[in-house]
Write a structure and sequence with these properties.
Strand content of chain B: under 5%
Shape of chain A: globular
Helix content of chain A: 25-40%
Structural class of chain A: alpha/beta
CATH superfamily of the domain at 112-276 in chain A: NADH-ubiquinone oxidoreductase 51kDa subunit
Number of strands of chain A: 16
Number of helices of chain A: 12
Number of helices of chain B: 14
Oligomer: heterodimer
Order of helices and strands of chain B: HHHHHHEEHHHHHHHH
Strand order of the largest sheet of chain A: 1-13-12-16-14-15
Strand order of the largest sheet of chain B: 1-2
Order of helices and strands of chain A: EEEEEEEHHEHHEHEHEHEEHEEEHHHH
Largest sheet of chain A: 6 strands, mixed
Radius of gyration of chain B: 22 Å
Structural class of chain B: mainly alpha
């Protein structure tokens, strides 16, 4: 039986555009832009300078701060500049711009590990940090930090819900790389020292569920695959924990306080590659999609590839793009330019036409209660929206704006087209 | 950059929306209500149609004029004025004079809605404000009922008036006045009453559709009708727990009120639990008025009274915060 949480709603997925398309590897572009901040936490420092030669996988930035992660070159070539560049999350940020020499030579540090089993917890954690592994679901939180929770935990959840419409990158890797994912999960198990491991997958991805289950049975791993109701935001960390374990992580608390660590399925694959293949995180799977895109695809791309390169690789759009979004349509970030690089947290590039993303005209709240019924964290979204409209920002505090996980379902469902989440973000920002 | 710049739109997420809109909901509810009125036109005669049209047109004109005078954006297309007009007509006797209908619509729109700031800000159900205003101003015209008798239409008391008479033992009506209605007649609307409330069957079909579309939730109507049925069964008979419930539930404005007026988004509580409490409160007040009050029918007053309690309900009935102890 599929498990779920209360609230939320099934929304049209548009996953058919790419779900049956195998991952295609896109050749390294002529130039990559690698931001030194691709993760939650401190910006990396680089010891390299203009004109330095790098290879695929050469470390180009790191930080001695705990919450940070290493970044690597994704091509072999020469550093053209170290300068501010468009950044999909931060607007602009310092980046290393590398011109490819087309040779794709691997850095000497990248080599297969003959034997993985002797590696202990500390050695594995070091590999995670040095390989630049961060959460690939979108938030890009450094994985080595997540794997060293300050409290003991009993359960590891693998987030493979992929509840965002349009996105299919996680689905594809589960179909195409189940063995590697399971090996990655076993590494996570070793690091965390947990027995209870559950992979949560929405029940519209039946093939992924059966592929993983068959592999688990064949290898007699003790990993459970749990189907989840196909409902947004099923993949939100707290809703996933609620659905699978019936534990609630209160606002402002992290999953470890409920004894859980949640890792995205793509991150598990990246961990496998880092440990077994010695490969740092310099490429990832990106779903490039949209109804107006001529050939939507699941692409394996180098970090630092421009969105415009991806769109071009997919043969451009049939109607003019009105919005280009990094991520899915619910939580993704609208970009002001396609001259923006793919970063580690780029799960998708979604192109919407004017018709698909019109300027919605806001009307008065009719108190229909849909946002209240649907809110997965039990808020009163309409009330916050009214507070923001009337500039009653202090009164808004009583409605617990900090509880909001910014899933956006309230705004999606609002028949008056009110920009509720925008109001909540405003209230949160002002309250800071 | 030599390439022509393509200006991209940048907004806060989410970037997609449901296809439901306020206007779609309002027009859909109006459409669902229509069959009940059309049955009444068939039963009571063509004047009922003129009442419906007069109420809708005058409501729309009033809203247009309010927006025009206040120099606000026109809001007619959201469909709420038309719905208010239609609901008002449904709460009027089929023989209501058209001038009175227009006054009712005017009051409903101006004092029921626009003075509060328009749709979404009103405290009371606008259509019921119109009806109650007319009840207070023109009590005789508002209680002149016709009853379809064979092919003729004659004046006669409504089933609820008869019930009240019997319950109170006042014997105002002579036995010649009293028509014994069958359940079938009540369902099909062959009885005295307001335009929209007569054909219960049409209302129930429409309500089922709105429930299926999730435009309304079951909480208000179930709380409302359930409470009326329970209390009438307990206290509406000659002795305790001997009351008939079929006629009281199917007569008067209960079905119309419970499914289409008490479920008004703007003037009812926001949570499902709140809606249930609201419905129970409506049922309680309705039964008290019906059995012991001065009027034969109490649906309108019960909803308006509960409208005043809505903010209080919303204050105390809130969803459970995620992560909060049960």
């Amino acid at each position: 039986m599929s498990l779920s949480f209360s609230g939320g709603k099934h929304i049209p997925g548009y996953k058919h555009l790419t779900q049956d398309l195998p991952v295609v590897t896109m050749a390294a572009p002529a130039e990559v832009i690698i931001p030194l901040s691709q993760h939650t936490g401190a910006v990396c420092k680089t010891l390299l300078k203009k004109g330095d030669k790098v290879k695929v996988g050469t470390k180009i930035g790191s930080s001695d701060k705990l919450i940070s992660s290493t970044v690597h070159s994704s091509v072999s070539g020469e550093i053209k500049a170290i300068a501010d560049y468009n950044h999909p999350v931060l607007g602009t940020s310092i980046a290393v711009i590398i011109t490819s020499d087309g040779k794709d030579e691997l850095d000497a540090s990248i080599k297969l590990r003959g034997s993985v089993s002797p590696l202990g917890k500390e050695e594995l954690l070091k590999i995670v940090k040095e390989s630049g592994i961060v959460g690939l679901g979108g938030a890009a939180f450094p994985t080595h930090v997540k794997l060293t929770p300050p409290k003991s935990i009993d359960t590891l959840l693998i987030n493979a819900a992929e509840c965002e419409p349009y996105l299919t990158c996680d689905y594809r890797i589960m179909i195409e790389n189940p063995n590697e994912i399971l090996k990655g999960i076993n590494l996570l198990k070793k690091i965390l020292g947990v027995k209870n491991i559950v992979v949560g997958i929405e029940d519209d991805k039946l093939e992924a569920i059966s592929v993983l289950r068959n592999k688990i049975i064949a290898k007699s791993y003790s990993i459970k695959v749990q189907p989840l109701k196909t409902k947004y935001p099923q993949g939100a960390e707290k809703q996933l924990i609620k659905a699978i374990l019936d534990r609630e992580v209160p606002a402002g608390k992290l999953p470890f306080e409920a004894g859980v660590v949640v890792i995205n399925v793509g991150t598990a694959l990246a961990l496998y590659e880092a440990v077994y293949l010695g490969k740092p995180l310099y490429e990832r799977i990106v779903t490039v999609t949209g109804k107006s895109l001529r050939s939507p695809a699941n692409l394996k791309v180098r970090i630092g590839t421009k969105f415009s390169d991806l769109i071009e690789f997919c043969h451009g759009t049939s109607t003019a793009a009105s919005k280009v979004i990094m991520g899915g349509p619910m939580m993704g970030l609208a970009q002001f330019s396609t001259d923006t690089p793919v970063i580690k947290g780029t799960s998708g590039v979604l192109v919407l036409s004017e018709k698909e993303a019109p300027d919605y005209k806001e009307g008065p709240c009719i108190r229909c209660g849909r946002c209240v019924d649907i809110c997965p964290v039990g808020m009163l979204p309409f009330a916050l929206s009214m507070c923001a409209e009337s500039k009653m920002l202090e009164q808004a505090a009583q409605y617990n704006p900090r509880d909001c996980i910014e899933c956006g379902i309230c705004t999606y469902i609002c028949p008056a087209r009110r920009r509720i989440l925008e109001s909540i973000r405003l209230i949160k920002a002002v309250a800071k | 950059m030599t390439k022509k710049l393509n200006i991209l739109k940048v907004t806060s997420s989410p970037h997609i929306r449901t296809s439901e809109t306020t206007a779609k909901i309002m027009w859909m509810v109006s459409l669902c209500l229509l069959p009940s009125g059309l049955v009444s036109v068939r039963v009571f005669g063509i004047h009922a149609l003129w009442v419906m049209l007069a109420a809708i047109v005058s409501a729309a004109l009033t809203e247009w004029a309010c927006c025009f005078i206040a120099k606000k954006e026109q809001t007619l297309s959201d469909g709420s004025a038309v719905l208010t007009g239609l609901l008002l007509a449904y709460n009027l006797p089929p023989e209501a004079p058209l001038w009175m209908v227009c006054i009712g619509s005017f009051v409903a729109i101006v004092f029921g809605k626009m003075v509060f700031g328009g749709l979404g800000f009103n405290i009371f159900n606008p259509a019921l404000i119109g009806r109650v205003f007319l009840m207070a101003s023109f009590p005789v015209l508002m209680t002149k009922w016709q009853v379809p008798a064979g092919i003729d239409v004659v004046s006669a008391p409504t089933p609820l008036a008869v019930l009240k008479d019997q319950f109170a033992g006042s014997n105002v009506f002579s036995s010649a006045d009293i028509i014994n209605y069958s359940t079938r007649d009540l369902l099909l609307g062959i009885r005295g009453g307001c335009i929209g409330e007569a054909c219960v069957l049409a209302l129930l079909i429409a309500a089922a559709f709105l429930l299926y579309k999730k435009y309304i939730s079951w909480h208000t109507p179930v709380g409302f009708i359930g409470t009326v049925a329970l209390l009438t069964w307990a206290f509406g008979g000659k002795t305790l727990f001997r009351g008939d419930i079929i006629v009281p539930v199917l007569s008067g404005g209960l079905i119309l009120g419970a499914f289409f007026m008490a479920t008004d988004y703007v003037t009812g509580p926001i949570t499902k639990k709140g809606k249930l409490i609201f419905g129970i409160g409506c049922g309680l007040i309705t039964t008290v008025i019906r059995l012991w009050g001065g009027y034969p029918e109490g649906v309108s007053y019960s909803i308006l009274l509960m409208n005043t309690v809505t903010p209080l309900i919303d204050r105390f009935v809130k969803p459970r915060r995620f992560g909060e102890k049960r």
